[in-house]
Amino acid sequence: MAKVIGGAALPNIPWQDKPKGETMPVWRYTGNPIIGRNGNKVSNSVFNSAVIPFKDGFAGVFRADDRTGHMDIYAGASPDALKWTIEDEPIVFQGKDQEILRKEYRYDPRVCFMDDRYYITWCNGYHGPTIGVAYTYDFKTFTQLENAFLPFNRNGVLFPRKIGGVYMMMSRPSDNGHTPFGDMYVSQSPDMEFWGRHRYMMGTTHGWQSTKIGAGPIPIETDEGWLMIYHGVITTCNGFVYRTGCALLDIDEPWKVLHRSREYILGPIEPYECVGDVPNVAFPCAALCDAATGRLAMYYGCADTVTGVAFSTVDELVRHAKEC
Ligand code: BMA
Description:
By secondary structure, this protein is mostly beta strands. The protein has helices at residues 98-101, 271-274, 314-323, and strands at 27-28, 43-54, 57-66, 71-78, 85-86, 93-94, 106-114, 117-125, 129-136, 142-144, 153-158, 167-173, 184-189, 196-202, 212-215, 220-222, 225-236, 239-249, 257-260, 282-290, 295-302, 306-313. The chain has a five-stranded mixed beta sheet, with no helix packed on it. The longest helix has 10 residues, at 314-323. It is globular. The chain binds beta-D-mannopyranose. Beta-D-mannopyranose is lined by residues 48, 107-108, 178, 242, 278, 281, 283, 301, 304.
């Protein structure tokens, strides 16, 4: 049995047992989607969002595209991680530099608890997409830091502790459009402001992960390596299809890939994943983990329209990364 290292027990994690006869390593919550198009008063769609345990319940940062077509991120709260209340106003950041606070667009947030605070990374418009970084203690007041990288970049995902004395973040350099390529890198920072020592981590391969790949949830530390869930994209005659896989990374040098799934673990199959504003997208941005049992609840955007939850266990995904 693969073991979670360093994580906390989360007895109130949403959970349903694996259905009898299920052959996939990941199974969907039967109440999906948990958040519909109308997640708040202004939304056209709520998807690609991040949740995390907070106090007695859960907090989240949600991507909502509003009905003007603007992409932004909104704070939310939930007692059970299934029924969410999402603010009607986007997050307002405070910070030192007006140049950085100036807003173009924001999407695809990730939330990572580290040290004493909750860090948020997202795809931040700054003359093209790059990685925005901020922190909060309470999901009410948010402080924005410098963008981590130059444009163009997406899918900036932090590791949940310093490694070798520095912060580490995965990212996927891209272009200003619907990027038809993309490999993953790991960058290092002593202070969450200056990022360097960029290392190539992994690239596209075959089939479902042949066009581009990008990190999803915050990686989970296990005794077999960092368990990293990522999305992979194939270009078909009808456009991109987004599926999900998993990999195991070296604990001390996480750009070294120990194992990587050849078969996807989750893909657009259900109607709400196949039909929506962007058909055929299953895009995970967060995973709750109960360190005591290894249970996982993954949060993923469905067809760029609604939000779903899917379950697995750390042991099952470690095995999949190694064997499938
Ligand atoms: C990517 C991002 C994601 C989105 C996906 C599919 O480039 O914009 O937010 O889910 O495309 O449209």
